[in-house]
C-alpha cells in the first residue's frame, strides 16, 4: 500500500547552474530556499528589504529598486527607540535615522543591479492579507508594532493580486527581458488570521499566480505549497508552532526544487560543495594534531581546486 500522494514534477527548461545569478524575494520560505542555494554556493541575492509577505509590498520593492528611489527622512519614523520604514522588515530597522536611510538606499541600489543581471528571480507570496496605514492610505510591508488601530486590515482580491503580479513582471522584463521568473506560494500557515481566512488568502494567491504563468514569457510556478499540503500532509513535517515547515520538510521541498530547477550537470559539484561545507564545520578534539593538520590541507586543496574550476564559487 502507498500511504503518500506524491506530486509528479517535471524538469523545467532554463535551469540553474553555477553561471546563474539568482534573486529571491518574498516570505520567509524564500529565506529557506535562499539558505540552501547559498549553502551550495550559487550566486544568490535574497530579500534586501527583509521578509515581505504580500504581493503589494513585493511590487513596491521592485518598483522602487528599478526606479532607484531615494529614501529620505519622510519615509521613516521612530518607535520603541528604533527607526523604521513601512516598506521594509524590522530586520532593516536601525538605532539612528541615518543608519536606516543608509541601509534602505544601499539595498535599493543593490537590488536594482541584481534585478538587471539576474538569470532567475524567485518570488514567494505569503499572504493576501494586507494592512493599510490610514494616515497615508498606503499598504505597508511591515507594521513594526505600530498600534493596530492605525491600520485597516484588508484581503486583496484575486484581480488586485493579478494586477500587482502583472506590474511586477512588466517592470522586471523592462530592464531584464531574458529573466526567468519563478513564483511560489509559501506553505507557512498564517493562522493568526484564522483557519478559514488563511485558506481564502492562499486560494487568492494561487488563483492569481496561475493566471499569469506562461512558459512563453518565462513565468513559472513551483508548487511548494502543494508539496507541503498534499504530499507531506502530516504534522510531523511541521515545527513545534504547527505553522512552519520543519527541517525535514524544507529539505524535502529543496530536493523537489533541485530536481525541477537545478541542472543535473551541477550535481557532482553540489556533492563536492557539501563535502567541503561539512569539513569546514568539523570541530576536532585536537586542533594541533598531525591528523587534523593533514585534514585541513586536504580541505584547503579541495577548495582551491573548486574555486579555480568554477570562478563563481567562493568559500
Automatic annotation (TrEMBL):
Pfam families to which the protein is assigned, alphabetical: GSCFA (PF08885)
An example of a GO molecular function for this protein is: hydrolase activity, acting on ester bonds
What are the GSCFA domain coordinates in residue numbering?
21-257
Query: What InterPro entries does the annotation carry?
Result: GSCFA, SGNH_hydro_sf
What Gene3D superfamilies does the record point to? SGNH hydrolase (3.40.50.1110)
Protein name per the record: GSCFA family protein
Organism (species): Lutibacter maritimus
Amino acid at each position: 500500500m502507498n500511504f503518500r500522494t506524491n506530486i509528479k514534477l517535471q524538469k523545467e527548461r532554463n535551469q540553474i547552474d553555477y553561471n546563474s545569478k539568482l534573486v529571491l524575494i518574498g516570505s520567509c520560505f524564500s529565506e529557506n530556499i535562499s539558505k540552501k542555494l547559498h549553502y551550495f554556493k550559487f550566486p544568490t541575492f535574497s530579500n534586501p528589504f527583509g521578509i515581505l509577505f504580500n504581493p503589494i509590498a513585493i511590487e513596491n520593492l521592485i518598483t522602487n529598486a528599478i526606479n532607484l528611489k531615494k529614501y529620505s527622512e519622510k519615509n521613516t519614523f521612530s518607535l520603541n527607540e528604533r527607526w523604521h520604514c513601512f516598506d521594509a522588515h524590522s530586520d532593516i530597522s536601525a538605532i539612528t535615522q541615518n543608519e536606516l536611510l543608509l541601509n534602505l538606499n544601499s539595498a535599493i541600489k543593490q537590488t536594482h543591479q541584481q534585478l538587471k543581471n539576474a538569470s532567475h528571480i524567485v518570488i514567494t507570496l505569503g499572504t493576501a492579507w494586507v494592512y493599510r496605514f490610514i494616515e497615508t492610505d498606503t499598504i505597508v510591508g511591515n507594521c513594526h508594532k505600530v498600534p493596530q488601530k492605525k491600520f485597516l486590515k484588508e484581503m486583496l482580491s484575486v484581480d488586485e493580486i493579478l494586477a500587482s503580479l502583472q506590474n511586477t513582471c512588466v517592470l522586471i522584463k523592462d530592464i531584464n527581458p531574458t529573466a526567468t521568473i519563478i513564483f511560489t506560494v509559501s506553505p507557512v500557515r498564517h493562522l493568526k488570521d484564522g483557519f478559514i481566512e488563511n485558506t481564502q488568502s492562499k486560494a487568492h494567491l494561487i488563483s492569481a499566480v496561475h493566471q499569469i504563468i506562461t512558459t512563453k514569457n518565462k513565468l513559472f510556478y513551483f508548487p511548494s505549497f502543494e508539496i507541503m499540503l498534499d504530499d507531506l500532509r502530516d504534522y510531523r513535517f511541521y515545527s513545534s508552532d504547527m505553522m512552519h515547515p520543519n527541517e525535514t520538510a524544507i529539505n524535502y521541498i529543496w530536493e523537489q526544487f533541485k530536481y525541477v530547477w537545478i541542472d543535473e550537470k551541477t550535481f557532482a559539484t553540489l556533492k563536492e560543495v557539501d563535502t567541503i561545507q561539512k569539513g569546514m564545520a568539523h570541530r576536532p578534539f585536537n586542533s594541533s594534531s598531525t591528523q587534523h593538520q593533514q585534514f585541513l590541507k586536504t580541505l584547503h586543496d579541495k577548495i582551491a581546486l573548486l574555486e579555480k574550476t568554477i570562478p563563481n564559487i567562493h568559500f
